[in-house]
Amino acid sequence: MTDSFFLPEPGDQLPRFAGVPSFMRLPHVPPGHPRFKDVQIGLVGVPWDGGTTNRPGARHGPRQVRDASTMIRRLHPVTGADPFGQTACADLGDVGPNPADVQDSLDRITAFYAELANAGIRPASVGGDHLTSLPILRALAQDGPLGLIHFDAHTDLYDSYFGGFRYTHGTPFRRAIEEGLLDPKRMVQIGIRGTGYDGEDIAFGRAAGVRIVTIEEFFDRGPDAVMAEARDIIGTGPVYGSFDIDFIDPAYAPGTGTPEIGGPSSFQAQQVIRALDGIDLVGFDLVEVSPPFDASGGTAYLAASLLFEWLCILSAAIRRT
Amino acid sequence: MTDSFFLPEPGDQLPRFAGVPSFMRLPHVPPGHPRFKDVQIGLVGVPWDGGTTNRPGARHGPRQVRDASTMIRRLHPVTGADPFGQTACADLGDVGPNPADVQDSLDRITAFYAELANAGIRPASVGGDHLTSLPILRALAQDGPLGLIHFDAHTDLYDSYFGGFRYTHGTPFRRAIEEGLLDPKRMVQIGIRGTGYDGEDIAFGRAAGVRIVTIEEFFDRGPDAVMAEARDIIGTGPVYGSFDIDFIDPAYAPGTGTPEIGGPSSFQAQQVIRALDGIDLVGFDLVEVSPPFDASGGTAYLAASLLFEWLCILSAAIRRT
Amino acid sequence: MTDSFFLPEPGDQLPRFAGVPSFMRLPHVPPGHPRFKDVQIGLVGVPWDGGTTNRPGARHGPRQVRDASTMIRRLHPVTGADPFGQTACADLGDVGPNPADVQDSLDRITAFYAELANAGIRPASVGGDHLTSLPILRALAQDGPLGLIHFDAHTDLYDSYFGGFRYTHGTPFRRAIEEGLLDPKRMVQIGIRGTGYDGEDIAFGRAAGVRIVTIEEFFDRGPDAVMAEARDIIGTGPVYGSFDIDFIDPAYAPGTGTPEIGGPSSFQAQQVIRALDGIDLVGFDLVEVSPPFDASGGTAYLAASLLFEWLCILSAAIRRT
Amino acid sequence: MTDSFFLPEPGDQLPRFAGVPSFMRLPHVPPGHPRFKDVQIGLVGVPWDGGTTNRPGARHGPRQVRDASTMIRRLHPVTGADPFGQTACADLGDVGPNPADVQDSLDRITAFYAELANAGIRPASVGGDHLTSLPILRALAQDGPLGLIHFDAHTDLYDSYFGGFRYTHGTPFRRAIEEGLLDPKRMVQIGIRGTGYDGEDIAFGRAAGVRIVTIEEFFDRGPDAVMAEARDIIGTGPVYGSFDIDFIDPAYAPGTGTPEIGGPSSFQAQQVIRALDGIDLVGFDLVEVSPPFDASGGTAYLAASLLFEWLCILSAAIRRT
Amino acid sequence: MTDSFFLPEPGDQLPRFAGVPSFMRLPHVPPGHPRFKDVQIGLVGVPWDGGTTNRPGARHGPRQVRDASTMIRRLHPVTGADPFGQTACADLGDVGPNPADVQDSLDRITAFYAELANAGIRPASVGGDHLTSLPILRALAQDGPLGLIHFDAHTDLYDSYFGGFRYTHGTPFRRAIEEGLLDPKRMVQIGIRGTGYDGEDIAFGRAAGVRIVTIEEFFDRGPDAVMAEARDIIGTGPVYGSFDIDFIDPAYAPGTGTPEIGGPSSFQAQQVIRALDGIDLVGFDLVEVSPPFDASGGTAYLAASLLFEWLCILSAAIRRT
Amino acid sequence: MTDSFFLPEPGDQLPRFAGVPSFMRLPHVPPGHPRFKDVQIGLVGVPWDGGTTNRPGARHGPRQVRDASTMIRRLHPVTGADPFGQTACADLGDVGPNPADVQDSLDRITAFYAELANAGIRPASVGGDHLTSLPILRALAQDGPLGLIHFDAHTDLYDSYFGGFRYTHGTPFRRAIEEGLLDPKRMVQIGIRGTGYDGEDIAFGRAAGVRIVTIEEFFDRGPDAVMAEARDIIGTGPVYGSFDIDFIDPAYAPGTGTPEIGGPSSFQAQQVIRALDGIDLVGFDLVEVSPPFDASGGTAYLAASLLFEWLCILSAAIRRT
């Protein structure tokens, strides 16, 4: 039965451009709030770009996505899914990073997500740069390595940067594999493209068993075939989802730090997320939205729209449990 | 025989960026002008966003489309059609809405278009928000309900808003059906997508006999098949055309009030308009261009380019009569 | 004693760019909230531009000002005032207008503010266009006409528009005088400039006893002399404050619908607000911030900074009671 | 007696954002129009940047200024002047340059203005880059050299560029002096500033008798004193006015090709133009508005506002004859 | 063996956003530099828009592309090609045009490229408008006419403009054919679209033997088939490549002077360049990037990415010799 | 005697918008270059924002300022100073920070500047955020504490952030005093304003002997009086200059991370720098230009113009030695 507390503020009572902008106009339920324990899906912002080695600004991502997300309505146009009516969703607020210290930020983020994990809340996160995924995985993978379905232009499997710096937005999944947070045999990366440094990241991934689907293969075989294979690989075990907005072509998503041309369209992005219906999604993040490079705000609106697609998958996973 | 009065100012005598910007550099022939009676296609701006419940700005649409339209040359690249040479086209100016009153605006617009209808001028309108279509249809459908070919991300078949307000940019076609201006059996809506409130709009439309083609069906079957079916449905009777710029993906058309991701490309937009050749088009509108959200002006240029495509269809319809 | 519930979230625990953006990072205490009765200053957004006859977009003002306001710290740099520590301030959320109907919106806004007035909360409002002031005054002036200190490029004393439409952003203070909400003998308008229609607005105002200070007089005599006179005119009775962002030169405040060149600087704007210390301010509004015309966001940041200045004046007025 | 044909379209019948945008919403009366002979002040666009050696785009100036100028109302706020009611003003359209050839453009422009001069129309021109002034002066100075009141950050008295190219936007007034179109003893240049090449331009000007007022002197003595001296120098003979938008600080006027920091405010710009009341102004131009560098459109609006100030001076000059 | 002098500055020693921005972070080796004679591929900027008859700004293209190009890494993602490691590439700087004179500019450019040709350096040029190609071809085709592979929305085969002006960005390839610099039988133009003046350009081209592939044919047959035919036509002789950024849809490339809707995606642009592998490319240009119309900088980044694709083709051609 | 090697590339041989953009079009002379030892003033970029706790982007400052600086010509308009002709100036390139580590960056920067100090080169630096000043001072103050002339809206004298993090852009001068790099008795801070946390920074500074001039005092006494006092305080000993672009009002300088309204104009900024003529300036930095927030590029152009003013002061100081 739907708990009306957890429903978004309806647009015919308060116009969609009005109100304090929480994610999807959901109630703001930070840890400590009396209804925190009832939340099933916790939307969390991670306003952090401390791992960014190129153009910064992802620290401003959560706020702009919140703003854009107030445009989203309740029902999925194809499946009719009603994630806010079917699952208790809430905006848990932002986890505060330390802009002046990477390690302190990693610890703060992991602590925040551990609290969610303990409360049985599945997280839907909006970054922040891609290093965000690492501290989240540290909190979520306490019972063993997870599978990963990962959409991105880059593998983020680099080893280090600048001669030994191991924590940047190019390294989270290398670290996560090393730390036993992810099972490389149940990892799929889709959309990889762009000029390379030396190919070591891809070589590492493939050696470890990660299935890497380049954009050329993606366009050649088509979203359906690629996603069918991905479903096979990730299987029925718990899976984490990670969606870098630079997966999509920069014509659709200019507001990001490290764009790569030659990417998919927004419709193809919807297709690949919808193809995940049925997996045991334990949480996901949507990262690398950088508002300062998003002249028209379209990237944030795209991110908010895809956030809804992901929420439908996560809501369905919860309802199956 | 071509009447040189009605030809656009040529770009090799006055550069395309020069001159007072009328639509397509056509002569400005407002009602009362001595040549008004000779006009066959009247281009009209409706600078109005009084029905907008979300992001405003469509009131600035006509002016920005006029500006962009001065880039358009004379001949269609595929068919060689020469609408300005083959039909007497003119910029009739803008119909002045009342920014402070919706009902007064509806009346002013209908009165203006009734004058065109009486003069036998077929209107090519640039909005303005989508409520614009209703007062135009009131003027054009005096001899009975028209068919409708409608490209849009939204059905605009909602019943009311805010508990009883019946005239917004989400309701024009519901009102038009109720008022007997449109024949729902001869209505086709293409491109429908995006999250929904409760699905009542689609249910109403389908119950009334409207053919609603979602974007998923559009991409699945392809423009050719969809348009062949649409041609069958609208048949040989008089048809009105309505093109909401948010039909197209926001990567191509960011300058609009209620974008929806996952839409067609600009080439696909050209394809669907070109597929209308041969229908008895009695007029059309192109709506929801909102310049304040169009950082680079590309939406207006897209709109101006599609305005030319529509003019070729309308010109051909006139030449067949 | 400071009630820590009402303190802004500190920037050294959660970075200023993080978190759900309420005004000044204050707690969100909508009517019905258990702490509502304890609020002394209620910050309210009025996301409405239904009275706008020129460029729209002020409906998006409150959200952008909320975003910018998270940059504001606690203490006034000159007086050391600490309004959040000295007075219970809260973000009451937005009053929802009806984008499709002016009269319904006027009624909704007055009803909302009547609730504040009844609770003894003094309102600090962020518009919205200038018609916003009228329904607020209807709620606040229940015990008799108020004085008005009004900074603006325009008098907003017009009678009607489009042949009889009496409720636009150019008419609020004419209506307020007619309705007995304002005492014209205790009204001061400062910064008036720009080309005129027919001067009837100024003639009306002066005939009624309103003190109108043109920008030429303002620059000639200087802020100190002008404000000393203004203080004399408004006297010791209850006064409402209204600040149109177009008071300031458009180089500082491009994001507004009807800019007028030749205005004051941001420092002069600070000076005139600071000169109000000691008046019996019963509430104020800050209106006409239109984000779609604010390419860099600077207008919203300016507005947020001046909102702080006004809050210090309002807080001091409360502490004197 | 006011000829209603020449009045701007009033904003309470057609909103200011509506309609085909002519300068100041005046009638469009190109040469050949039946009312051409009755025009007293002809507003002309010169969409040309063929003389620009730095950032281009001034070719788009006239159109953007036309757009912004529709915001301007009828009466001067200080003097009450009503130039459109007191003098027959019209938009004569644009003179078409040849974007591919400087000399051909110079000839086309002079020919156009000679037609105005012969018809007794005083031109109010909107550029275009500053080379625009030269061909206009060739048409206007047929009866002997004119005085010049010139506001600019640069002298535009350079001799040549790139080893011998004599016609650029840095040379018009050198050429005009050489050609006997201007009397250097009756020339005043105000606002000169910015880093220099070698100072030869200033040395030439001073040697020829031109009064050059640097920005430092302008700020030191103040607008009143400087303009009083300028009035003395230009005297009672015929004077041409030339206003480069880069006279004003780039905070106010970012949309220009060669900005120089440290300039006057918009109010000071109004002051210096208003101080010209009483001179025998035979025409003026307002140049170097470059829309591609004007992110918010504020430069064009500033230019339109100052265009009105200049029109008041020109109208008064005509009424005295 | 790789000469480390010619390697780009690596991003893990100096971040990619740091440093004086040369093309691809290559060494700056202007003519006269001691290593000039060792250069195999010379990257050259031609900051010139003197031939532009529409929106200007391409003069700023080289600098913005240099800036964006510092984001490009070393290896091609599909072929693994390492053009900077396999061929000596350098930034030769810009050839200085004369902004005030078209003919002088043509001569300066030809002289610069003749120096390259004499040194055996193959040029990779970044414009500048499309007239840039003509003076380059004059330098490169000294031993007889070249083939041409040309991607563009326009044929640039116009005869003249404004009644006789023969050197504009719409005429370079007409002139090149007339001057015997190109062999029309070995010319392929792909992507042609948009409204036309009179079709004379296409008629001329086809009569001369140029293979013109319209965008409709391109989308209908697909990139593979079109490029296979193009390869057949250009054959094994020396070929020049010319890529106008307006080949690509303006959603991907808004920063250009004469956009045409309905174009290919960025991925399709990559496909067609990659299909050129194996031709005897003697040089290429990438033109018509106009930064003032590129609100987010994405066009320059697209251009930089495609520049890398072209460099791989050129590098391979050199290695085969 | 002027060494022509060190002269900027002249604009009449290569247009100012052309060429690889070094600072002021000076030769690029990185450490190791044969002419490095002859450099007197080294222009250095520090593309780093690792200390930024608010809006990032200053890492992109040096590149955008380089681009804008190519507009600057040779001679000072008031003094006629010719710093490039009178002193050997060169662009030394950027010192590469480590975006992923603050401490490593501090060390890298100090090492780079130590090399300059050893070579007797006085540095003119472009940041970067304000933490940049600390590692520079560590290199320059090897012979004892320096004086400081500091223009800024903020004191940057905070102690720590986030409970103990001591190296942010709000703390450099606290650290520098603690480390004995600056003599607080010879420190002047001008322009301080904006809301405060707790006033501890100002209390610390005043207790230590720093002269802090608030913006209110600055406007009240005027630039001349304030700078005369500042000259007295810094005296004749060696002084470092630090100019935060947020000293200036955000209308003039929107492109910065932490703007504060109510600041000086660009002309006043020129005045205060010019008033430094005669001091023993050992180097300076110009920091906090953040291009992602600078919609029109005006902030970078302002910074480049002020960079020239500072270079004139530094050049004069060198010539006096």
From TrEMBL, chains A, B, C, D, E, F:
Residue numbers binding Mn(2+): 130, 152, 154, 156, 244, 246
CC cofactor: Mn(2+)
Cited Pfam families: Arginase (PF00491)
Protein's GO biological process: putrescine biosynthetic process from arginine, via agmatine
NCBIfam families tied to this protein: agmatinase
Family: Belongs to the arginase family. Agmatinase subfamily.
Name the UniProt record assigns to this protein: Agmatinase
Species in which this protein is naturally found: Oceanomicrobium pacificus
Gene: speB
